Amino acid sequence: MENNRWKVVAVYKEAYRVVRNGNAMLTKVTGSFINNALRKSDFPAVGDWVYLNEGGLIEGVADRVNQLSRKSAGRRYEEQIIAANIDIMFIVTSLNKEFNINKLGRYIILAETNHITPVILLTKADICDDPYGYVRKVSYYYPKVEVELVSTFNNVGIDFIYNKMEKGISAVFVGTSGVGKSTLVNKLSGQNFMKTSHIRGDDKGRHTTTHRELFELENGSYIIDTPGIREIGLWINDENLSEFEDIYLLGRVCKYRNCKHINESECAVKQAVKMGDLPEDRYNSYVKMTREIYYSKLGQDEGERLRFKSRVKRMSKNERYNRH
Fold first, then answer.
1. Which letter does DSSP use for residue 204 in this model?
2. What is d(CA 254, CA 214) in angstroms, rounded to the nearest whole number?
């Protein structure tokens, strides 16, 4: 089966573009694959290695090293795989009204809980009056995440990104529409792979990428552009966030081992805020993110329960059919 392993480089509505040894083809999954899939996340994603049958259809997906996941849009809690086997997440935001420090934090959670290294890219630095003020603000809130000013117009920050992209490395570019993700992809590749458009007068970007796609650079690294994510629905795989390591360390001396640092008495974290040793805005950011993680986990648990019920119902139906 290893001799028939292909890499997924693009995902469309009902089709996948796969490559192997310089050859590319457009294909779909088999009917049996669809019938055996229990959830949307079972289907191939950009970056996946897949196995094709003799008819050239996808019959299986290789185990993933990791995956970048989010909650599917809307109220339903279902995991949506944005990309698989990713090393770096370049979080792209522009230095205008689109900039949102809390939104950056949610992207960082998205990366770290999926075991992907986050790197923040501040684009359109050439049209900002105080770009380094933004750098200082980001570094204050997220001191453990690398942040770099970028301007494709002046070639600022491009070498920084290149140096991160070693052979075999796969990186994904995420951010809302119009912040310059597709422009960066074109700049890094040296080709006009992705369509681009200017930000509208209200600083809200148009969607320029309509599907997820992987591109191989000359040095053998891979980059993935994604459609603008307006709703960042977190999908939590691991709650240990290194960005709040200082709060975790303070929490080790709290009176209660399971202290949530919100309403408990004799909380070392709240005491640190009171004494001025921990900035109050950082504490508030921590509380906001941990609450969001909590509600996300609740939704995921409910989704797992509903999927289990559906699976049992299907098994029961098949058993009744086999009796006859």
1. P
2. 46
